[in-house]
Amino acid sequence: MTCDHNCVITSLDAKWSLGSTEHWSRVWHLPSFTGLLHGVLLGDRGYPCLPYLMTPYPDPGAGPQIQFNVALSRTRVRIEMTFGILKARFSCLHDLRVTPRRASRIMTSCAVLHNIATIRKQRVPPADPLPPDVVDPITLNHLTGRAVRRALTEQFFT
């Protein structure tokens, strides 16, 4: 799922049924998704740094790298807020005990209704606190992803 700065869901692929041993970062390698991008996505430490997916520096050394991580975190919080608002609006999403196909339909329906409510500026119910970043980061960092991150850091934080 991706969202914009207003917490409007801009994409959702609810057909993935990832088990506990799989990670969402696998989805970002799909050509069908990456071909749709017009910019970059922001991810947490659980994702690899790719040319189109910026993640924090694992061990920021200098001031600009720390500033980059802070800016990324402040921006990325929108997706966490969107998940929280979605779950607060639709408590059924907390524990779906249905077939994957039906769960996909429920998720998609909730996302559409969430967008309608957001665009109409409906009151947002109290949300759960934000979950912490993923503790166990994926160590795979593509060289080109790191180069893009370094260029962004140099352009905006030095």
From TrEMBL:
Protein location: Nucleus
PANTHER family: NUCLEASE HARBI1-RELATED, PTHR22930
Coiled coil (residue ranges): none
GO CC aspect terms: nucleus
Cofactor(s) listed in the protein's UniProt record: a divalent metal cation
Protein name as catalogued: Nuclease HARBI1
Superkingdom of origin organism: Eukaryota
